[in-house]
Specification:
11 strands; single chain
């Protein structure tokens, strides 16, 4: 079970976020359906000294979207940023044991089989589906050896790097095309 692979789980803070604060806060929209964390449209929050450890994520933590529509509940990503971020109440932070790759666990939850498992276990109330931390931890998962987990993580990192390079190239290409359109339709060509 996934719970056997975890050191702990923690629900996010329910405190109200705003335009200012010491910590940027990740909300359910910051976890994509394909397993990435995007740091856009951020809000901020202040945390007391005793809340910092409880409500912040660190590099390698898993974020699991516990409440959303039936299609989006269970979105999962591994936090990969060095600086601390807070996380909101609709997210669960899961920390894997040292011998377990968080990318492997998140990868399973984002796989077709993992998403089907999550969809089948989600409790739906008025258009919102919910999967609590205990239910997520109860999901059965195969546990490969550390070498296989490492190869998976390396391959995933390589694909992520390639994706970021391609996204940068696409942004640059779109910018050049927009410039060309502007020049063409304003009579500058």
């Amino acid at each position: 079970m996934i719970g056997d692979l975890l050191e702990d789980t923690q629900y996010g803070t329910s405190a109200k976020a705003g335009e200012a604060g010491a910590f940027p806060i990740l909300r359910m929209g910051n976890v994509t359906n394909d397993g990435r964390i995007v740091v856009v449209d951020l809000k901020f929050i202040d945390l007391s000294d005793k809340e910092v450890e409880k409500y912040t994520v660190r590099k390698g933590d898993i974020l699991f979207n516990r409440k959303n529509s039936v299609d989006l509940v269970g979105k999962t990503a591994v936090f990969g940023i060095e600086e601390p971020f807070a996380f909101a109440g609709y997210l669960v932070r899961a920390r894997t044991k040292n011998s377990i790759s968080p990318h492997y666990v998140a990868g399973y939850l984002n796989s077709r089989h993992g998403k089907a498992t999550l969809r089948n276990m989600a409790k739906s109330i008025v258009g919102m589906a919910n999967i609590n931390a205990k239910e997520m931890a109860s999901i059965s998962i195969l546990i490969p050896d550390a070498d296989s987990q490492g190869r998976y993580t390396t391959a995933l990192t390589s694909v992520g790097d390639q994706r970021r390079r391609l996204e940068t190239q696409l942004r640059d290409t779109n910018s050049l095309f927009s410039s060309l359109q502007f020049r063409a339709f304003s009579g500058q060509l």
